[in-house]
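Fold it.
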Amino acid sequence: MTKRPGHAHSTSEPILMQTFDAASIDKEYQFYDEEAARVSQKIDEELKRDWVRRKDAQRRQVKVMLLGQAESGKSTLQKQFQLYYAHHALDHERPLWRPVVYFNILKAVRMILDELDHELNNLSIDDSVEGQAVAHALAPLGDLGEEFSRLRTKLVPLVAMEDSLASELSGGVAVTGGRTGVYVRAGWQALVTPLSPNRSHALPGTGGLSPAVAQVTSLASRTLIAVQNEVDELWKHPAVRILLNNRRIRLDESAPFFLDSIKRVAQPDYLPSTADLLNVRLQTLGVAEHSFDIELCGSRYNWLMYDVGGARGQRHAWVPYFDDATAIIFLAPISAFDQYLEEDPRTNRVDDSLQLFTAICSNKLLKNSHLVLMLNKTDLLRKKLEAGVKVRKYITSYGDRPNTYADVSEYFRAHFIQVHRRHDISRRALYVHFTSMLDIRATQDIIVNVGEAIIRSHIAKTGLA
């Protein structure tokens, strides 16, 4: 009998049925259930250990915000902390600061030349007492037009590089209002540094700079070397000194340091020194995070420091970092009593610092944060007072108090303490220090004291042993 197509078995053939042992099946399922439970328990234990590790790491994180107006010294303080706790990282960044030093010099030279043109062209029509005093001081120098015309012609190629160098360093970041300068966001070093394919380190042979930045830096270096004598001559010229002493030329605070060092900087193998890194001026946009570890009493703590842009238009960016900040270090440049905000020429910078400190003391999000006040740039304050600049001319409430460093510094300290007493909503302690960020030894003594106080406060709050 033939099989019908489409069937595997004939209906007449016997089919053997496989028998199953129920007991063995139950035993096999029991094995799988136990194995699944064991794996699940192992996963749960690992998740729990990971949670404990993350919780412990979080408890050992110390978040510190550096607050204050623009040019108050926040970035310099951050570099001082880095110099003390993570100097290897700062050493690695040295080549990246070379074009920034060049920019500081280019900007200073351009400002001097611009102010010279303005002052010399308008001196004859300035009938103010100050104007007449400047004219009288300049008279013995004779006609300066030809001399400065020669210097300007020599220095034009150097000054012409300012914008291109600023553009490369800023990575295309622009600031409204037509202001020029180097404005950088967090991680600007990565933007100017070419990385190897694994993105972990700079490519060898580049000097740490990306090709575009390296090219403009090399050109700036060669140009500066070629005209270093003219830069030095301009800076030391008696007319420039007279205008500086009479406050007719105002430069960035870093300018005198670098112009005094022009011969050292204008070398082919120039590498920024620690003093250069602390003096250099670079404006921060937004919020930049810096991380380094601190050892205290045998334990390691991860210090997260937030350096913020201090201009009025950038202060809204601070708020998201307020709610879990361990500490606030507020910097107030008390040397700025004779200066006004760039973004609001009617507001005295010390008054702005007092208003900003009032807002910090009264902010509910910061009520549990350790509070440190640094009355900064005392070295510049001393120089201004010794040069005869009168505080009462700019701050009328100072009255007839002596124009000495001891009296002026105490006057400003009392005003900030009064703001804290009136407006601090949590009645916390205020730790006040007079500082000069350029004094490495004195600042680092303060850094140790401040760092330990902040961490001890953090330990008390978190219960860490």
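The chain has 17 helices and eight strands.
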